[in-house]
Design brief:
Layout lengths: L16 E4 L4 E5 L10 H7 L4 E5 L16 H13 L5 E6 L1 H12 L4 E7 L14 H16 L4 H6 L6 H4 L5 H17 L2 H13 L14 E6 L7 H10 L3 E6 L6 H4 L1 H14 L7
Parallel strand pairs: 2-3, 2-4, 4-5, 5-6, 6-7
Antiparallel strand pairs: 1-3
Length: about 280
Amino acid sequence: MGDCQPNSTLPAANLNVYIQGAGFPILCLHGHPGSGSSLCVFTDHLCKRFQTIAPDLRGYGKSRFQGDFEMSDHLTDLEALLDRFQIHKCLILGWSLGGILAIELALRLPKRVTGLILVATAAKPRSNHPPIRWQDNLYTGIASGLNWLKPGWKWNIETFGKRSLFRYLLKQHTPLSYSYLAKNAIPAYLQTSPAATRALAKAMKAGYDRLDALSQIQCPALVLAGAEDRHITVDSSLETAQNLKNCQWQYYANTAHLFPWEIPERVLSDIDRWLQAHPQVISL
């Protein structure tokens, strides 16, 4: 997704941030479109033992920003955020685009990042998403609107949801996953700025490949992937895991890019087990 190395002179943005709990800090980074609140599937669980810090990235959620910017500006913002809250060490959890930013922060701030939890992401992301047709957009609009009015409505899921673009984001079209869509995905989509979309599109066009740099990351990592992910393929996530020195790998059958909303209990249980096995990632 383009070069995330510093190449911008824009000042750091004062990000809106959602903070929950107390204890060792976990920085939680959302994807595109997304917001800090769309990570509640993780933060509502982890905040019972840790302090979760989930910012709205520049141009997302309530972190409004005028004008264009580069992907590298997210890193400037996040480093400033850590300084603002005097966070000297943290674990980073990143979902999709957030995982790419987590990798970049670990490369940029190796002494401050104790560990990585990388969700549906890759250091060299590849997609096998089919072309989008006008019918896809039509059904997605209808499914989203009805789901907003009546989250998890089975008739809407069967009639429109499974014909919409949601079929590439989910494999398990359950009322639970659609409730997450209504609560977290639709508001995040509506709050994602055109500038954020342009920045990502520009980076995707330029390409992104940090596989060779992964050997520099010494901290433990957990890589989680959905076996049927069309946005960032399971093979590209596995390739990332194989290039990290101290990494545990887990993929989930019959799930896609939004697998934390499909099987939240299993994902959170696997994260808990990894944290228990790696106490150094949550220790100052």
